[in-house]
Amino acid sequence: MAIDKNNPLEQQNTPDRNGSGGSDTTNASTRRRKKPRRDGKGSNTQTNNPATANTSKNKTRRSGKGSGKTSQALATQALDTNTAIDPDLALGDAADDAAAQAEGGIKAVGNQRIIPFMKIEKPMAILSLLMVIASIIAIAVNGLNLGLDFTGGVSADVRYEQPVEQVEVVQALADNGFDDAVVQYLGTREELLVRLPPQSDNIDGLSASLTQALALPNNTAEISNVNIIGSQVGNEVYLNSVMALALALLCMLGYVALRFQFKLSLGAVLSLFHDAIVTIGVFALFGFPFDLTVLAAILALIGYSLNDTIVVYDRIRENFRRVRGITPRQTIDLSLTETLRRTIMTISTVLLVVLAMMFLGGDGLYWFSVALFIGLLAGTYSSTYIASSIPLRMGLSRDDFVVKVKPEFEEEIVTFNDPKMFE
């Protein structure tokens, strides 16, 4: 049978000289061409076939998207085929940057949205300044309603045969001319501590008058001890209290300066001063009694507020060293956002205890709880804005937390110009 050489179908079925069919050779070549290269960039047929390349170019031109879209598509294809680069990370970072710029914030770290706390920094600073000025004016004009611990007075230990209520004892003393009495329980409801303003009687006459005044129907009272506190002793207690408050702030300043940085220590001390002066100002404004229990609450408040501030400062220092490419303001916003959940949980649990003491602790713990309640609210606010805003205004930056090698500890590099020296 004659073979038409001009017919391509018959040429494929013509055997070659070694007896193998042409179709097998062609199929084998085709199979080899369909295999991808070892570098994973596609097959030889796609790269070496000019018709395919021309067709792809014509399709790109017909789409009307220009060479810019073509280069973007090629870049995306290179990201998809190159195993050394993760396309999800590259494209994800670009999308996060674009979304952050659109919102006016920064890119979230660890899929966490950043709250711009410092965006309202100036209004909060003005509010704090007004609160401090108002507190100082209230203290200067109204003064503090100092308790018996500071002004002096009479203290008596009383024991009843049966349990009594504090209100009954206060009313009995008021009916007999002993006004402004303070009554506290001493462990049980039968033992009480009675404190009175300064009296003109001596100890013997005062003891007899108190025994008669404290007597209740079917419940006699026995006074075991009566102490008269002079005004001079009260003034010494008052001065020692002010010195203790100032010494506590000074020690906090030194601790934060050594532990962190001086800019942060100044912000922490001003924040603590803000908390103390606002709490005292509220007591002066409304005429609440100010005694040693209230002073103890203020000292406890300083310790609590400093603890919250230290947590924020530790995260600020960590983020300044860890996060790169963001401004100091954004670093502080990031740190405050990361510690927000911890702050909310801490203040919530402490407020529960304070409210329980306020409503269930009796008269002896009432004003102590009120002082803590006011100070906790002021301390949470000041740890977020005052303690973090002042260092930022002072120029806090990453250079304040990076350890630099001193010149005397740098290694000296010695070079020898004479090669014959080692011969």
Automatic annotation (TrEMBL):
It comes from the Bacteria. Residues 8-29 have a biased composition (Polar residues). The keyword Transport applies. InterPro entries: SecD/SecF_arch_bac (IPR022813), SecD/SecF_bac (IPR022645), SecD/SecF_CS (IPR022646), SecD_SecF_C (IPR048634), SecD_SecF_C_bact (IPR055344), SecF_bac (IPR005665). Signal peptide: none annotated. Residues 1-73 are annotated as: Disordered. The chain crosses the membrane at residues 124-144, 237-258, 265-286, 292-313, 343-360, 366-388. Gene3D superfamilies: Multidrug efflux transporter AcrB transmembrane domain. Pfam families: Sec_GG, SecD_SecF_C. Residues 219-394 form the Protein export membrane protein SecD/SecF C-terminal domain. It is a multi-pass membrane protein. Residues 44-55 have a biased composition (Low complexity). Its main location: membrane. It is found in: Cell membrane. Keywords: Cell membrane, Membrane, Protein transport, Translocation, Transmembrane, Transmembrane helix, Transport. PANTHER family: PROTEIN TRANSLOCASE SUBUNIT SECF (PTHR30081:SF8), PROTEIN-EXPORT MEMBRANE PROTEIN SEC (PTHR30081). Belongs to the SecD/SecF family. SecF subfamily. Part of the Sec protein translocase complex. Interacts with the SecYEG preprotein conducting channel. SecDF uses the proton motive force (PMF) to complete protein translocation after the ATP-dependent function of SecA. Forms a complex with SecD. Part of the essential Sec protein translocation apparatus which comprises SecA, SecYEG and auxiliary proteins SecDF-YajC and YidC. This is Protein-export membrane protein SecF. It comes from Psychrobacter namhaensis. The gene is secF.
